[in-house]
Amino acid sequence: MVNMKILITGGAGFIGSNLADYLVSKGYSVRVVDDLSFGSVDNLKDLIQEKNFEFIKGDLRDPEIANNSVKGIDIVYHLAANPEVRISSQSPSSLYELNVYLTYNILEAMRKNNVKVLAFASSSTVYGEAKKIPTPEDYGPLEPISVYGGAKLASEALISSYSHTFKLNSVSFRLANVIGKRSNHGVIHDFIEKLKKDKTRLEILGDGTQSKSYIHVSDVIEGMHYLLNKNLEKNIIYDVYNIGSDDQVTVMDIAKIIIEKMGLNPKIYLTGGVDGGRGWIGDVKYMLLSIEKAKSIGWRPKLNSYEAVKRAVDEALNS
Ligand SMILES: O=c1ccn([C@@H]2O[C@H](COP(=O)(O)OP(=O)(O)O[C@H]3O[C@H](CO)[C@H](O)[C@H](O)[C@H]3O)[C@@H](O)[C@H]2O)c(=O)[nH]1
């Protein structure tokens, strides 16, 4: 397996660059394609000299870039996307272009170049406000409440259909809130930046009770790699796994952890948010994924949500 050549779309981003480090350290040849709109070459600085590593700067909305990126590749990890749920009500077109159309371009390039294996970074947001908690992979009907979640679900549908039609082996990974080294967005990043600007106050969007499952990026990349390989051993055409942890933390808990680690004593302001205390339109207030399916195959996260948040806060403060 190690002589396989792997493409990571969005590989200069937060999850992608951590995955690139991991796969290169395991001896794989890795190619990254990224337009650097959300990612950064700085995230690849440990890899750029490696002979098994290659970086292409390019926008995958261009079919020619997609085509050149997949040439000679055995496995594609498709992570390139706009990661912001919160822009759903302002920029649906960006989410369509970057999170749906771009997936189509990758699938077309794979079909034309006979590339047969795809792992996709999908999201917990495909479930919308699930009535079953913890939410298993076979929960339905799927009713996303953000355009971001809708776009991820549309990509999953394209991947399933291409996999069956053109005989690919693919897996969609529905990720809980991923945090850790190199994350440049999301609640931890936002709170730390706000407190660096003004130590005396912290504004929390929403009512602070938003409760979600958080997972450290190191657990995510190990999980995706492990589960994809298990599925390949069984030649499964298309499959879906949740990747998360077994507990949840609230936004208020996260604020308290950050405040304590920064040694501050700010006044906390709750904006109240929108639509019953959400941070923004389409913010799912309560999310916990069932990870029993992945556990039954032999994967489980090393860190729970609390441990992951604490580690991610340390990493952000020391970066
Ligand atoms: O200043 C802030 C920023 C965030 N929040 C709250 O913190 C929670 C988490 O927000 P993030 O922006 O960290 O993350 P999201 O839940 O919106 O989305 C994240 O997790 C999803 C999967 O669960 C997707 O994969 C997505 O790409 C990823 O950013 C939300 O409830 C939000 O309301 C605040 O209260 N104040």
Provide the descriptors you would attach to this structure in a database record.
Rossmann fold; UDP-galactose 4-epimerase, domain 1; Nucleoside-diphosphate-sugar epimerase; 7-stranded parallel β-sheet; 319 residues; single chain; 14 strands; alpha/beta; 3-stranded mixed β-sheet; 2 domains; Epimerase_deHydtase; 9 helices; NAD(P)-bd_dom_sf; binds galactose-uridine-5'-diphosphate
What does this structure look like?
This protein is α/β, with parallel strands linked by helices. The chain folds into two domains: 5-178 and 215-243, Rossmann fold (3-Layer(aba) Sandwich), CATH 3.40.50; 181-213 and 246-287 and 305-318, UDP-galactose 4-epimerase, domain 1. It is 38% helix and 19% strand. It is built from nine helices and 14 strands. Strand 5 (117-123), helix 4 and strand 6 form a beta-alpha-beta unit. Helix 1 (14-25) packs across helix 6 (217-233) and helix 2 (63-70) packs across helix 3. Bound molecules: galactose-uridine-5'-diphosphate (GDU).
